[in-house]
Specification:
CATH superfamily: Cytidine Deaminase, domain 2
Number of strands: 8
Strand content: 25-35%
Number of domains: 1
Low-confidence stretches: none
Radius of gyration: 14 Å
CATH architecture: 3-Layer(aba) Sandwich
Largest sheet: 6 strands, mixed
Shape: globular
Number of helices: 3
Structural class: alpha/beta
Distance between the termini: 13 Å
Length: 138
């Protein structure tokens, strides 16, 4: 289960809407071993694509060095889908490399809007196996 603050959820949704029609992406870091997402870090989609996202390798290296200095790890890795539901694509699954992370997806398929009833969905992706998990917003 993912427990996440309303403030971070709102920030993810705002980023997804702002980057539409391109996919938005980013990380929410937290203290190592805590499983608590606490620091919202929007990233640039280096692919600038409506159908997939890619972190810039230099930006990602800087982020991981910063997280190491702060004793943090990626608790959430998020991105948006601009034309499909919030479910991991084959590409998303193949690139999922953080077995402890929650992979959060937001769909902006409805003209850049986000469905208010289900603003985001979260998954664990380990060894190519996708498992949806409950999201509790506090």
């Amino acid at each position: 289960m993912l427990t996440i603050s309303r403030e971070i959820v709102d920030s993810i949704i705002k980023h997804a809407k702002a980057d539409h029609p391109d996919e938005a992406c980013g990380v929410v870091a937290g203290a190592v071993g805590s499983d608590v997402p606490s620091r919202f870090i929007p990233m640039l989609n280096a692919a600038m694509s409506t159908t997939f996202y890619e972190f810039d390798s230099g930006d990602l290296l800087r982020l991981y060095r910063e997280m190491d200095r702060n004793d943090e790890e990626p608790v959430v890795i998020y991105h948006s889908h601009t034309a499909t539901e919030a479910y991991p694509s084959r590409t998303d699954i193949s690139y999922a490399s953080e077995p402890n992370a929650h992979y959060v997806l937001v769909s902006t398929a409805e003209n850049g809007s986000v469905n208010e009833e289900a603003p985001l969905r979260s998954y664990r992706i380990v060894d190519g196996v996708v498992t949806e998990e409950e999201v509790t917003i506090v």
